[in-house]
Design goal:
Blueprint (H helix, E strand, L loop, with lengths): L6 E2 L5 E2 L6 H12 L3 H4 L1 H8 L1 H28 L6 H9 L1 H33 L7 E5 L2 E4 H20 L1 H29 L14 H7 L2 H5 L4 H4 L8 H29 L2 H5 L4 H10 L2 H35 L18 H13 L7 H30 L15 H18 L11 H18 L12 H13 L1
Antiparallel strand pairs: 1-2, 3-4
Length: 482
């Protein structure tokens, strides 16, 4: 058997081939976080919170994600298997909580994969105005055109096909698009330094705290992606300790990126002009270089961001669905691998297929998808934080190649901080809070969890948590199928 082929675990199920290197894993994590949000959301951040207010919100949010990332780092290094959260929570809390955490993060991934399928035609239209033809219907005031929707469908088919072909092929695409994205970032910094004006950055803060919270609640959406590294850990051929470190590095890189985007965009144009811009970041970039061509280059960077995030999160979502099916918590159909490419092709086709529907609901879906996925993401982060604490207490001698906080109790302090921060972040979405969600995101959220409930009731109950929990679930599921 070649090194790139899949093998079989001691439990009798298929494992995934180790084909990814150090840079591949980092590009997946960082690229997943730097999607399209920085292109379309920055203008709103500046209008709502001011330049410094937006920066502080991003730094606070990045700090929260870094703390959560520390818990992920230790758990990923200890359990480098496909599925990430699924394996962590299964060992600490048992099968049913593991399903809840896995379904939650998968829901976050699916909403962002769908978001990118809508964002792609929205971005392409900036470069090719008038591409929308053949009106279909109107959703929330946005006229959906067939040609507009088909652009998103075509991109979705391409990204899904690349992933079916193999994780290494997907990582090659990821590497090139991340490098192009970094080049665009370098040009943004150069333009701001040479042509930006500090006076344009005013107001630094907008009155009240509602704008700050409006930026802060977008953080789960903006930073989701570092957890793609744990999803692909089974396919990474580097030491598990290094895999854990990459989780935290990717979060820090994303925080720096978002702060850079806020600073460079705000320096380019007065706030009043940014408020009226079509896509504020692109118009600001064009203003820095006094060139509409440069605005379109930034949009090309936005397209690169779409592709990196889309690619990473499709990979992550498919590995979670694959892992749930491999453990007997979802139908076995999802655990099948492609006979030639040895990828979880059925899971990829399922997730990719959902994203192909999103463009037919129009551009208003962008905001709804951002908001609907965030609560699910936070549920998963909360459960992982609890898992971190429980495993520290129950299994003090568990192999931990990367032990956060050293040998003392400081690691547990980090775990408790993560639990409290994720719980507080979730509360911001509730009715009556400064950044409560409208009914449309809650409807999408509810539909995802109703679907999850169908599978949740089939997950065997009464199985204690532990290292052998997955094998016990499989034994019961296999007995049911006989």
């Amino acid at each position: 058997m070649s090194k790139t082929q899949n093998s079989t675990s001691p439990h009798g199920y298929t494992t995934l081939a180790k084909t990814l290197g150090n840079w591949d894993a980092l590009a997946l994590g960082f690229g997943a976080m730097i999607g399209f949000g920085w292109v379309v959301l920055t203008g709103g951040w500046l209008s709502n919170a001011g330049t410094l207010g937006a920066m502080v919100a991003i730094m606070v949010g990045g700090g929260i994600m870094a703390v959560v990332g520390l818990t992920y780092a230790e758990l990923t290094a200890s359990m480098p298997k496909a599925g990430g959260e699924h394996n962590f929570i299964l060992r600490a809390l048992g099968p049913r909580p593991s399903f809840i955490g896995s379904w939650a993060i998968t829901g976050g991934y699916v909403t962002i994969v769908a978001f990118e399928a809508v964002a792609f035609p929205r971005t392409v239209e900036y470069i090719f105005p008038g591409m929308s033809r053949i009106p279909l219907w109107t959703v929330a005031g946005f006229e959906v055109n067939l040609t507009w929707a088909l652009v998103g469908v075509a991109a979705g088919l391409f990204i899904t096909w690349i992933n079916v072909r193999g994780v290494k092929q997907a990582s090659v695409v990821q590497t090139f698009t991340v490098l192009f994205l970094l080049a665009v970032g370098a040009m943004m910094i150069f333009g701001s330094v040479t042509s930006g004006e500090a006076s344009n950055m005013e107001p630094w803060f907008t009155p009240g705290m509602s704008g700050f919270f409006a930026v802060l609640v977008a953080v789960p959406f903006l930073f989701i992606g570092f957890d793609v590294i744990p999803q692909s850990a089974e396919e990474v051929k580097i030491p598990s300790r290094q895999i854990g470190k990459l989780v935290v590095v990717s979060v820090l890189m994303a925080t720096v990126w978002y702060i850079m985007v806020v600073l460079t965009t705000s320096s380019a144009m007065p706030a009043s002009e940014l408020a009226n811009a079509d896509i504020a970041t692109a118009d600001a970039f064009g203003a820095l270089f006094n060139s509409q061509i440069m605005a379109k280059i930034l949009i090309a960077g936005g397209i690169a961001g779409i592709l990196t995030s889309w690619n990473s999160l499709l990979l992550g979502a498919s590995r979670l669905v694959f892992s749930l099916a491999r453990s007997g918590m979802l139908p076995q159909w999802f655990a099948r691998v492609h006979p030639k490419y040895q990828t979880p092709s059925n899971a990829l086709i399922f997730i990719g297929g959902i994203s192909l529907l999103a463009p037919f609901f129009g551009a208003e879906m962008l905001g709804w998808l951002v908001d609907s996925g965030a609560p699910s993401i936070i549920i998963a982060y909360f459960l992982v934080s609890v898992t971190f604490l429980l495993l520290r207490r129950r299994e003090p001698n568990m192999s931990r190649p990367l032990r956060i906080g050293g040998r003392g109790r400081f690691g547990e302090v980090i775990g408790w901080i993560s639990v409290l921060l994720t719980a507080a972040l979730f509360s911001l979405y509730m009715p009556g809070m400064p950044a409560s969600l409208s009914w449309e995101p809650w409807l999408i959220f509810a539909l995802w969890w109703v679907l999850g409930a169908v599978y949740f009731v089939k997950v065997p109950g009464g199985i204690p948590a532990g290292e052998d929990a997955e094998e016990k679930v499989l034994q019961i599921v296999r007995a049911r199928r006989k």
